[in-house]
Specification:
single chain; 267 residues; alpha/beta; seven-stranded parallel sheet; 9 strands; globular
Length: 267
């Protein structure tokens, strides 16, 4: 059995793969275009691991994805591949539209055609899991309760709008074509080897260099943080036990979403 992971050389994708290889027996087909935020160096420890097959490629390459699905016959597709930095999306939104919307559309369409070719048993076992972000919900006021999975989307940047569009496409493919999908929306991840444009490594680098720490807005913003390995453990739980067609919030101080994960584990 195999699973296909897209964006597996990025920060969260790397940790998911390393965690998977340490705990699971299924082979991972890892597709990544190796942009500025993805590096094979992150995966050096599994370079000679036959359970990990790396393929350089872009989720916008529909023919490649179709070929890989036919060749490796994965029982699940987990999409980490995305442009993911708000500031970059403001400077160049086109890249985010291309990768985060058109790329996901290509994945969904290739997955649908592949899924239709499977036996009834394999169709029932198949999953398409989209890794999204809590930024699709917008911004909470200081006195508001945490986001829940029922919270309406309220995107505030090209990045969050592109991720929300992908989420909507995934939902549509489930309801229109019955494709077995799952969506997860996580809070801000942190951990070793994170790309230095992100807040925590940026602050550490600036402090170590004796430089001024950048202040965003009026400095009153509050973020929820999720350790990357905790996120990966939750993703594996959702993949194994999540209800088809549902979305799951992961991380932060969201008691509702944490309860949802606990209920999944105990079900």
């Amino acid at each position: 059995m195999t699973i296909l992971v897209t964006g597996g050389a990025g920060f969260i994708g790397t940790y998911f793969i390393l965690s998977w290889l340490a705990e699971e027996t299924e082979t991972i087909i890892n597709v990544d275009k190796l942009s500025y935020a993805g590096s094979q160096i992150n995966l050096n420890s599994c370079q000679n691991n036959k359970q990990h097959i790396f393929i350089k490629g872009d989720i916008r390459q529909a023919a490649l994805i179709t070929k890989l699905l036919a060749q490796y016959q994965p029982r699940a597709i987990i999409n980490f591949a995305a442009e993911s930095h708000v500031d970059r999306s403001i400077k160049n939104p086109q890249i985010f539209i291309d990768s985060n919307i058109m790329g996901v559309f290509n994945l969904l369409e290739a997955s649908r055609q592949y899924w239709l070719s499977l036996s009834a048993a394999a169709q029932a076992n198949f999953r398409f899991m989209q890794i999204s972000t809590d930024e699709v919900y917008g911004t909470l006021k200081a006195d508001e309760k945490p986001f829940t999975e029922a919270h309406p989307y309220a995107q505030n940047s090209p990045y969050s709008a592109s991720k929300a569009s992908a989420d909507h496409l995934v939902r549509a493919y489930h309801h229109t074509y019955a494709l077995p999908t799952l969506v997860t929306n996580c809070s801000n991840n942190y951990g070793p080897y994170q790309f230095p444009e992100k807040l925590i490594p940026l602050m550490i680098d600036q402090a170590l260099a004796g430089k001024k720490l950048p202040n965003y807005g009026d400095g009153q913003q509050i973020r929820d943080w999720l350790f990357v390995l905790d996120h990966c453990r939750a993703l594996k739980t959702v993949l194994k036990k999540g209800k088809i067609g549902n979305s799951y919030n992961i991380g932060g101080n969201n008691e509702y979403s944490n309860l949802a994960i606990v209920e999944l584990i105990c079900s």
